[in-house]
Amino acid sequence: MSPMRAVVEVVQAHRTVEGGGFVVRRPFPTASLDHIDPFLLLDEMGPVEYGPGEAVGAPEHPHRGFETVTYLLHGAMEHRDSSGGVGTITPGGVQWMTAGSGVVHSELPPASMLKLGGKMHGFQLWVNLPAAKKMIAPRYQGFDAEEIVAHTLANGGVMKVVAGEVAGVRGKVNTTSPVTYAHIEFAAGDQVAWAPQEGHTALVHVFGGEVEVNGEKAVDGQMVVLERSAGEVRVHSASGASVLLLGGEPLGEPVARYGPFVMNTQEEIAQAFEEYQAGTLVR
Ligand code: MN
User: Fold this and answer.
1) CA of 283 to the centre of ligand 1 (A)
2) What is residue 268's three-state secondary structure?
3) Which of 124, 118, 76 minimizes the C-alpha distance to 96?
4) Distance 165 CA to ligand 1 centre (A)
5) How far is the CA of 63 from the centre of ligand 1 (A)?
6) The domain 7-278 belongs to what CATH superfamily?
């Protein structure tokens, strides 16, 4: 039997209002938790039921120095960026956007959703880039629901692996650094044994129901942070649960962040602002 990673902390997500006015549930960053290397932000968008004309999104804005990962469970989002990346994310689909040296993009509800309203629920994760890759060319990867690798669990739950590998199931996204991203809908009694790479960050975010993570209980709105050891992460749900597993290699580099830019120094942040204002952020 492999060793189990100890639980370092159980973080409580808080509600806040982001971008064009959408309500998110955010485990980090907070005043006391700036980032969890290599992850910079996790937002659960909604769930919210929009009436006609109420749907909101994020109009044109820039990014530099990291990646934004958008995964939708309900609703739709139209994406358009300055590198030519275009796509509509639909339920079960994912968009992995590497901002690299700089993009300007918009993330908006499609016209039909604006007109009719509807349910919106999803996640945005920010993944930091190592210093050596912050200025790489932007890249856009989009996958529809049917392209996400799904695996049925023993009691009928479903595990969808977007990136990396969990219990022998491998996702399709070509990540810039080693990242694991999985969504699990646990049926009652299901369990998953995840063996993140030794020393890598491992997070279990619960967004419905209740689980035990290496024996520690976590409920809807809580994120379990595990130690960066060599051990396993065992997630079990007695009554059913909705969970994200996030794993990644910590960069161990200084993080200078301001709004839509994440670099290593304040000088690089100032430079990003200057270039954005001068219209030269996008190369
Ligand atoms: Mn954005």
Assistant:
1) 18
2) helix
3) 124
4) 26
5) 7
6) Jelly Rolls (2.60.120.10)
